[in-house]
């Protein structure tokens, strides 16, 4: 039960920081970064959140059900903008591949 508290506390802290900074980064993302920093620095022991993390990861497919329902509900809007969506998805995928490849080459030489 303490694991749920820690996860929700970091989420709430992230939401608070997002609101204070104008919301240009999602509160959930800020909360994950704070949780990661706390785990890496040793402020929070991994044992405290291990059980709830495994449960959430084990049931992750459930979290995609609302996404699927939203896509079906917005079918008309998606079909009107299909080429824009495909173009944006393709361009962003290629950009991510290029950046990751470049960083891997740069960091691979240092290791």
Shape: extended
Overall number of structural domains: 2
Taking pLDDT < 50 over at least 5 consecutive residues as the criterion, the unreliable ranges are none
- Taken as a percent bin, the fraction of beta residues is under 5%
Number of strands: 0
Number of helices: 6
Task: Give the rounded overall mean pLDDT.
Answer: 91
Helix share, percent: over 70%
Measured on Cα atoms, how large is the radius of gyration? Answer: 19 Å
N-to-C terminal Cα separation, in Å? 40 Å
User: N-to-C SSE series?
Assistant: HHHHHH
Class from helix and strand fractions: mainly alpha
* Major β-sheet annotation: none
Provide a quick synopsis of the model:
By secondary structure, the protein is mainly alpha-helical. It has helices at residues 2-20, 27-41, 50-58, 65-73, 75-80, 82-110.
Care to describe what's here?
The chain has 111 residues and is mainly α. It folds into two domains: 58 residues, no CATH class; 48 residues. Helices cover 78% and strands 0% of the residues. It has six helices and no strands. Helix 1 packs across helix 2. The longest helix has 29 residues. The protein is extended and about 50 Å long. It starts with a helix and ends with a helix. 5% of the residues are buried. The model has no long low-confidence stretch (mean pLDDT 91).
